[in-house]
TrEMBL record:
<feature type="region of interest" description="Disordered">
    <location>
        <begin position="87"/>
        <end position="107"/>
    </location>
</feature>
<protein>
    <submittedName>
        <fullName>TraR/DksA family transcriptional regulator</fullName>
    </submittedName>
</protein>
<feature type="zinc finger region" description="dksA C4-type">
    <location>
        <begin position="94"/>
        <end position="118"/>
    </location>
</feature>
<feature type="compositionally biased region" description="Polar residues">
    <location>
        <begin position="44"/>
        <end position="65"/>
    </location>
</feature>
<feature type="region of interest" description="Disordered">
    <location>
        <begin position="31"/>
        <end position="71"/>
    </location>
</feature>
<dbReference type="InterPro" id="IPR037187">
    <property type="entry name" value="DnaK_N"/>
</dbReference>
Length: 128
């Protein structure tokens, strides 16, 4: 891992911490809501008879909820890790290389754990 350090001022880091904490709460709330929604759909399905059309619609909604929850869980994991990095004093450094993540990227995506180039490689590898 590279030992490059990025000088992020304490005010910026505190601002990012507040943003990350708000994002963490938002994602957790979304996960909770979607889980409750899925439970309600399952209860409704067991208490009522459905036509094949409504069953298909419920199934599509459940699939969508699961996909959104999976995405939100991944984002929540990144947010938690970014908050850990703030506590460790390594916020703004790539998890992979230790290289600085540009401030503009952190402003746009406060939970960024990798440089843009590293993230692009990771996404391509996941698509394989």
């Amino acid at each position: 891992m590279s030992q490059h350090k990025q000088a992020l001022d304490p005010d910026f880091i505190q601002k990012q911490k507040r943003r990350l904490e708000a994002l963490k709460a938002e994602l957790q709330s979304s996960l909770d809501f979607r889980l409750e929604d899925e439970v309600e759909m399952q209860e409704s399905r067991t208490n009522q008879s459905h036509t094949s059309g409504s069953d298909a619609q419920d199934s599509a909604q459940q699939d969508n909820n699961r996909a959104v929850r999976a995405h939100d869980r991944m984002r929540l994991q990144a947010v938690r890790r970014a908050l850990e990095k703030i506590e460790e004093g390594t916020y703004g450094q790539s998890e992979q290389s230790g290289d600085p993540i540009p401030r503009a990227r952190l402003e746009a995506a406060p939970s960024a754990l990798y440089t843009v180039a590293e993230e692009e490689v990771r996404e391509r590898e996941q698509d394989l």
